[in-house]
């Protein structure tokens, strides 16, 4: 049985930084975790890259071959049929074969963290990520989507709701256990009303949204909030990378989600209790 986190979220929400902090944390507690780069446009890494999709395809290759721009290039890199065409000359059969071959190099590759590109279209517009997840599941991986949203979004209710909608869309498309993380907590100067956003009351969100938007949007706002309420998904776990306990707590939430370390229930329980004292 393998375990995997699929780290997704808008551009710049802190996915790669989270991966690197998580890796550091795991090194310090002597836990093995491999970080996989799934971003064909990535340039700099602050973590050891266990597997790198750029060995298979890069955005530059695609832009040059298909004469397209960087955003379109990334979509085409990721999109399965294009990938197949592109990689044919590289003697790879598919993205899946690449993964399978790479996995063979790791005897203990049982916990993988996939650092995904920020283009949300890879899970909203094309089935590539969904298919990739299915392949991982077939290989006996328990997979969880980890959606990061920048804490700066909470200062702006319409932005926060749009971030929630993207998360919801990922949830529906990927059909995976899902953990929402509010990243970059160190950048939030005033944390006094943060609970309002971590586990928000839909009515409060609706009235704040109505206050911010023109009256003709009232009906739309209501529908959006009802959607959010219906899926009961607007629950975020805060993440402050400066605090080891915060990383530890986030990891324990994800571990629970993918049933990792079921034998170490005690450890997780202790962490839960520790969370009560966790300063936000
Ligand atoms: N203060 C602070 N800055 C952060 C944190 N996490 C990320 N950043 C900064 O936010 C920017 C984007 O972070 P990345 O980790 O590259 O974000 P990403 O989601 O991987 O971005 P893309 O791969 O482009 O989608 C960088 O300048 C980081 O240094 C955090 O917890 N606190
Ligand atoms: Mg990144």
UniProtKB/TrEMBL annotation:
Family to which this protein belongs: Belongs to the GPN-loop GTPase family.
Organism: Thlaspi arvense (Field penny-cress)
InterPro entries with a match to the protein in the record: Gpn, Gpn3, P-loop_NTPase
Coiled coil regions, renumbered to chain: none
Keywords: GTP-binding, Hydrolase, Nucleotide-binding
GO molecular function, a single term: GTP binding
UniProt protein name: GPN-loop GTPase 3
């Amino acid at each position: 049985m393998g375990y995997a986190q699929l780290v997704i979220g808008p551009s710049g929400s802190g996915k790669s930084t989270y991966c690197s902090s998580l890796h550091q944390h795991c090194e310090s507690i002597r836990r093995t975790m491999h970080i996989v780069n799934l971003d064909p446009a990535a340039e700099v890494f602050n973590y050891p890259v266990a597997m790198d999709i750029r060995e298979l395809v890069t955005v530059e290759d695609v832009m040059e071959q298909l004469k397209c721009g960087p955003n379109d290039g990334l979509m085409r890199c990721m999109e399965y049929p294009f990938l197949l065409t592109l990689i044919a000359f590289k003697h790879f059969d598919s993205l899946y074969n690449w993964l399978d071959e790479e996995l063979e190099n790791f005897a203990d590759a049982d916990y993988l963290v996939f650092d995904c590109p920020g283009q949300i279209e890879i899970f909203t517009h094309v089935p590539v990520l969904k298919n990739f997840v299915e392949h991982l599941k077939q290989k006996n991986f328990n997979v969880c989507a980890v959606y990061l949203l920048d804490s700066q979004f909470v200062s702006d209710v319409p932005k926060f709701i749009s971030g929630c909608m993207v998360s919801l869309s990922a949830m529906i498309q990927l059909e995976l256990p899902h953990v929402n993380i509010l990243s970059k907590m160190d950048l939030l100067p005033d944390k006094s009303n943060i609970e309002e956003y971590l586990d928000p009351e839909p009515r409060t969100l609706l009235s704040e949204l109505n206050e911010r938007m023109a009256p003709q949007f009232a009906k739309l706002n209501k529908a959006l909030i009802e959607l959010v309420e219906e899926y009961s998904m607007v629950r975020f776990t805060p993440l402050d990378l400066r605090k080891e306990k915060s990383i530890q707590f986030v990891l324990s939430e994800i571990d629970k989600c993918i049933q990792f370390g079921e034998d170490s229930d005690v450890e997780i329980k202790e962490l839960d209790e520790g969370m009560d004292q966790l300063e936000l």
